[in-house]
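fwd from M.: "can u put these together and see what the complex looks like"

so here's what she sent:
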Amino acid sequence: MATVAAVIASTHHPFYYRASTSTGAERPPFADEWQAKIEAFRETLTRAEPDVLVMVGSDHFHQLWLDNMPQFLVGKAPHYDANWYNEEREFGLPRFRLDGDEELSQHILRGGLDRDFDLAFSNELRIDHSITCPIITLRPDADLPIVPVYTNIFAPPLPQPKRFVQLGKAIREMVESWESDKRVAIIGTGHLSLELGGPRQFGEHGPDPEFDRKAVEWIANGDIEGCCGEVTLDSLHLPGNATHGFMDFMLMMGVAGEGVKADHVDSLDLFHTMEAYFTWYPEGALEMRLR
Amino acid sequence: MSRYLLDKFLYTVDRDPELVERYRDDPAGTVAWWESEMANSILNCHGLEKSTWLAFTDHERDVLVRQDHIALFELGAHPFLTLTLFIAMFERDHGPLEYQIAFGQRLQHFDLPYPDIAT
């Protein structure tokens, strides 16, 4: 059976690429600290020696549109082109192409459907910065095949938060039941408190530092019960109008497991958002690597 | 209220470099052209397979022509779409982050709950 080599959750800040590659007067004052934190975070994936990456993110109205909006979608394609014109324009993100792992995609689609998740699928998916940002931060060589999993955190009506946790648990089970000797890292990105296009956007910190503090604690401690006890679709409007992206963190808490503490926890208070980085190593995952 | 159609306008313009420039330079002409040619286009269908019922209200059309992002927020247009397109059109006229910060400040009179964005 496949091994879950690492479980990784983070924010996806589209400005990182430009900040970390800029030099001289163009380089923002926070770039050095940010880059150092990202490089330490990247090492947590590198040492897990993955063969395949399951990448959980959310399309930002790029390919998926309101005339046909899936709640949860799995990519099943041999290749994925990456990034869009408006991401190049606004964030300076590069275009690139990733390979897919169709066998694992098929396994997750079949297994998901059999576990009562009516997953949509796509045989031609151009992925966006919710998946390419973690490629840039964690695996900049973009040399591993991926299975993209998209969630709807963006276009209401949205699934309930508990559904994200349940899907995360199911993805963990499905990867662990995949008949393969591959090492799979499961990576997902979302947001802490975030406001986009509203009155609280682009402040000196994220719009709700208190929510961010609690959220980091829930994730770092694997406190699914505490998190689900407080977070509802309605409550997520309060910390910021784009905070429903936190449900992708909840999905990753489901992958990591109830009460499982993260092995790597880091955060960075930037203007506009709190950035946060978490890695879990399932028991024995690193030891098996040495065989 | 055709909130979906407002979003469709913002979405189709934002993803097309030529339309972004056209809307910046000629808002009234672009909105009129878009409503007559694009509003009823089903995005993944052949041009002959069109919808027949989508139109802006007078107020919505006027808001788009005036490029009034405050009124778009009030109407429940998706704030991510509005922000992205307006940054594309107007950030270039300002210093770093100046436009984004002013955009937020112009919305300061909105309290929670914000206008509903469900379509």
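replying to her w this: Residues 3-105 of chain B form one domain.
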